[in-house]
Amino acid sequence: MNLKGKVAIVTGGNSGIGLAIVLELARQGANIVIDYVVHPETAEALEQQVRALGDQAIGVHADVSQVAELETLIAAAVDAFGRVDIMVNNAGVETRSSILDTTEEQYEKSAFNQSEERFLRHPARRTPDDQAGRWWPDHQHHLGA
Question: 17-31 burial string, b = 16+ CB within 10 Å, else e?
Answer without folding.
Answer: ebbebbbebbeeebb
